[in-house]
Amino acid sequence: MATPPNSPAAVLITGASSGIGEALAKAYATPGRLLALAGRDRGRLDAVATACRGFGAAVEAAAIDVADRDAMRAWIEGVDDRHPIDLAIANAGISAGTGGQGESEEQCRNIFAVNLDGVLNTAWPALTRMRGRRRGQIAIISSIAAFRGLPGTPAYSASKAAVKAYGEALRGWLAKDGIRVSVVCPGFVRSRMTAVNKFPMPMIMDADKAAGIIVKGLARDKARIAFPWPMYALLWLLGALPPAWTDPLLKVVPEKE
Ligand SMILES: NC(=O)c1ccc[n+]([C@@H]2O[C@H](COP(=O)([O-])OP(=O)(O)OC[C@H]3O[C@@H](n4cnc5c(N)ncnc54)[C@H](OP(=O)(O)O)[C@@H]3O)[C@@H](O)[C@H]2O)c1
After folding, report:
1. How many whole angstroms from its chain centre is CA 250?
2. How confident is the model at residue 252 (pLDDT cuts 50, 70, 90)?
3. Ligand 1 and 98: CB distance under 6 A
4. CA of 29: how far to CAs of 24, 36, 47, 153, 246, in Å?
5. What predicted TM-score, i.e. pTM, was given to this entire model?
6. In this structure, is the dihedral angle defined by the CA atoms of residues 210, 213, 219 and 225, taken in order, positive or negative?
7. Is the CB of 99 under 6 A from ligand 1?
């Protein structure tokens, strides 16, 4: 069965071995579609690939570090040679919690390498090929933590702010080339990343529900897919108000351990 018109026939997803990326892979796993999935944990990635094949998709899975620029370019160009990529989702990401080191200097640098360089290493090879075809779509997974520098997660919120601004700018820059760009800003989602948090996570949702919202938003070519709206509104407001007002409030926000 062919994929419907305006529906991506070839979808590339980084960070597909867990959480939101895994849920997105399963949401896009339909007959007639090619999924190119990447993660680092070969066992978990293969389990996701097998599940997606069970839903009828053709799957190529690669264990690859998004921070490795040359390896990412070789992988993405190889996939694109075989199946021109319609949608590339730069989803792989880490926080202080997933690194298990808090935001030490080492983990701060890892966070930027994965969350920022990893997005560039995904977006650039994809957009270079898409420009040649004058069509394609890129999704960048940011966070509602992008709207205000959060003292509990400095490098995480800064890395997400960087890719949010980059994606917003890319959308305008690449429109003339027929490439659509969306920035995704989720609130708390159940995943390995949030499983380590010992503090309350308001309005946390399942990864399947988050993936459904993202798939729908991308199909509508939304510039910003931010959810759930009360958390989005709260973080947006925190970012808009003067720091002199919000710094005291943010003192009570817990840190990642
Ligand atoms: N969960 C939330 O509440 C939330 C909220 C807002 C935004 N986000 C963002 O959503 C994205 C997915 O996070 P998640 O919640 O689904 O977390 P997760 O369950 O920990 O999944 C993270 C994914 O990224 C991959 N990854 C991490 N470092 C990598 C590297 N160096 N190279 C390649 N792949 C790497 C992981 O692969 P391996 O496990 O195989 O290493 C895994 O597939 C992240 O960008 C995160 O910042 C999450």
Report:
1. 25
2. confident
3. yes
4. 8, 11, 13, 33, 43
5. 0.96
6. negative
7. no
Structure tokens given for 32: 């007639």
Sheet holding 179-186, edge to edge: 58-63, 34-39, 10-13, 87-90, 136-141, 179-186, 224-227
Q: Average pLDDT over the chain, rounded to whole?
A: 94
- What's the token pair of residue 246? 């919000």
Q: What six digits make up the tokens of 162?
A: 């960087």
Give which of 105, 111, 192 is closest to 159, Cα–Cα. Answer: 111
Our mutation pick for probing the ligand 1 site, out of 24, 69, 76, 191, counting the most ligand atoms within 8 A of Cβ, is 191
Q: What angle do CA 170, 172, 177 make, to 5 degrees?
A: 85
- pLDDT 10s digits, 160-188: 999 999 999 999 999 999 999 999 999 99
Residue 36, strand partner residues: 12, 60
